[in-house]
Amino acid sequence: MFLGIVIVKKVEAVVRHFKLEDVKNALTEQGIQGMTVSEVRGFGRQKGHTEIYRGTEYAIDFVPKVKIEVVCTEDNLQVVIDTILQVGQTGQIGDGKIFVSNLEEAIRIRTGERGEDAL
Predict the structure, then answer these.
(1) What does the alpha-carbon distance between residue 95 and residue 112 come to, in Å, rounded to a whole number?
(2) What is the pLDDT of residue 47?
(3) Which of 4, 39, 47, 101 has the fewest beta carbons closer than 10 A?
(4) Which of helix, strand or coil describes residue 76?
(5) pLDDT at 2 > cutoff 60
(6) Secondary element (H or E) of residue 27
(7) Which long-range contacts (CB under 8 A, 24 or more apart) does 56-62 make?
(8) Under CATH, what is the fold of the domain 8-118?
(9) What mean pLDDT, rounded, does the chain reach?
């Protein structure tokens, strides 16, 4: 916090489907309220993989994942990152990524509250 200005961050984590519930529960236990979850597909260094279905091999170029978006203050940022890293990790290629960005503004539509009050 600098001169009364609260810095708001957006954390986007792309994780495996089966880790979603664990990550959600762990974030909730840490007092993190609110998140958005989207089904996404993509690839990183592994560039997809192949699967065999009824004896035929198929190339899966885009691997299905889940994207979790959490908006938090800078004070909570490290808790969010550490929790996702700890709970979302399997140690295998394809565990996902975490991206952190600054948010210019957060506004609650219902009340018009802004900044930290809107979170």
Answers:
(1) 37
(2) 67
(3) 4
(4) helix
(5) no
(6) helix 20-29
(7) none
(8) Alpha-Beta Plaits (3.30.70)
(9) 88
Q: What is the DSSP letter of 19?
A: G
Q: Tally Cβ neighbours within 10 Å of residue 97.
A: 12
> In the chain, where are the structural domains located?
8-118
Cα separation values, 91 from 52, 59, 84, 88, 95, Å: 24, 23, 13, 9, 7
Q: Which residues make Cβ contacts (< 8 Å) with residue 49, sequence separation at least 6?
A: 59, 60, 63
Average pLDDT over residues 34-40: 96
Is residue 41 a contact partner of residue 63, using CB atoms and an 8 Å limit?
yes
Position 38 scores a pLDDT of 98
Under the banding of pLDDT at 50, 70 and 90, the label for residue 12 is very high
For the record, the structure tokens of 26 come out as 């762990």
Q: How confident is the model at residue 30 (pLDDT cuts 50, 70, 90)?
A: very high
